[in-house]
Protein: AAA family ATPase
Amino acid sequence: MARLIDPTAESHHGALAEAVRQHAAPVILLRHIDRAHPDLFPILRTVFDNGTLTTGDGGRIDFRRAVIVMTLDTPPTGGVAPIGYPSPAQKLRPADLPGIPADLAERTDGVIRFVPASLPAMRRIVRNRFTPLAARAAAQGIRLALSDRACDHLARRVLHRPETLRRLLVDTVEEPLAALLVGGRLAAGEQVRIATRGSRIILQRIRSGRTKHTRRNRPERH
Structure:
């Protein structure tokens, strides 16, 4: 906790205080606030009540233009809309945020409850993430296509952990594709189709109407 507000070798005022000082209107993301060390809550109370924070070296950091976003693993309860800020009729109560102290919950301005993404939505996210990858391949003369089955497979893999999609694409597409290029097994003008075989993602080279399986990937990381 001391590293947030006390001077260190890397930061004159502490990591958090220095970041706020350097930006006119900072957005501060505190993930998994319900897992935070209890010593963090008095700091947040001071910021919420006073709009400023006194650092370990006696400096004062202005938080009045800062937006603080906190995420919880503990689902909110009570009269909170599935997504969006609550209406006046849905006034946030301390009991709605069981993962943080009640007095801190009372100091918040609003709550957004995120529902799990649906499978169709996750398929769209997979294709959106795949688009820049295909564009980078095209810049090297490689046409990259994602089959519907492969898209569905990737979407199901990350449905409940969407933050792992980037790593999954690296493991199943980017690294195998790079290995083919470096190994001279893939040349400009060729097309590669991302498909499935059983429970794995595979890369298929397509030449003159013929399909050749080039590599079976190792199992995806969990």
Notes: DSSP finds seven helices and eight strands in the chain. The two ends are 31 Å apart (CA to CA).
